[in-house]
């Protein structure tokens, strides 16, 4: 019935339901009941049918085989709705090993090694370009930070990357040196608007995303990509994986300096209900729709946001 309603409401799939064949009648099928399974051969001969779609539980093996035999003798294509369809997503795919089909309930273009190489090549080339052409900017920012506030130039933070492995993420320090990342209730202290911890130069760096430049070190080391889901600090990561549906699917790819969620306004605090979920949904969309040209679009949008400034960057 799920398949019937799907094709009835979506003409683009190109299906028109001729009718149902089953040993039990069903009042929900609007008079399209054609007969019992024992009558299948005569039903196929009496109607103009292209495809026979089998929607039986996996345990009905003998019955399914009989339907296949009768349908093929009548020169009809047979399609089988997998018994695991309730677990599938829009990005489902199937591989056949020998004669054994494996259904991937989620797949993404970056499963392909060719796409992985293209993405890695872009990461390496862009990172080297940044260090060679804008090396002076790295030195200038480092000098200004050192002269205007006490503490190290770089800020190092434990975050989580591909396959949920820990990485040390590098940023230009934009806040005063602090002792704790969590408050008295154990919640992660996210940066807020007009946050008193942010230094004057740090405010400019965060507004223009220049504080993220040292993460190209992570990119060259292969821990991050230029484009991907933003990695989160450990307290926020642990909190989100327990409270946000599908959050951990972000760990299927390398985290990024910028991402689809960020260029679409999903950055800054995530304290309000639904903010983190919206960000995660956009990250998953990116993972399932990755392409080289999508990465180029995100990079271009990121550069434009750096020029214009982002109201959620603080």
From TrEMBL:
<feature type="transmembrane region" description="Helical">
    <location>
        <begin position="124"/>
        <end position="145"/>
    </location>
</feature>
<protein>
    <submittedName>
        <fullName>Exopolysaccharide biosynthesis polyprenyl glycosylphosphotransferase</fullName>
    </submittedName>
</protein>
<keyword id="KW-0808">Transferase</keyword>
<dbReference type="Pfam" id="PF13727">
    <property type="entry name" value="CoA_binding_3"/>
</dbReference>
<keyword id="KW-0812">Transmembrane</keyword>
<comment type="similarity">
    <text>Belongs to the bacterial sugar transferase family.</text>
</comment>
<dbReference type="InterPro" id="IPR017475">
    <property type="entry name" value="EPS_sugar_tfrase"/>
</dbReference>
<feature type="domain" description="Bacterial sugar transferase">
    <location>
        <begin position="119"/>
        <end position="307"/>
    </location>
</feature>
<dbReference type="Pfam" id="PF02397">
    <property type="entry name" value="Bac_transf"/>
</dbReference>
<keyword id="KW-1133">Transmembrane helix</keyword>
<dbReference type="GO" id="GO:0016780">
    <property type="term" value="F:phosphotransferase activity, for other substituted phosphate groups"/>
</dbReference>
<dbReference type="GO" id="GO:0016020">
    <property type="term" value="C:membrane"/>
</dbReference>
<dbReference type="InterPro" id="IPR003362">
    <property type="entry name" value="Bact_transf"/>
</dbReference>
<keyword id="KW-0472">Membrane</keyword>
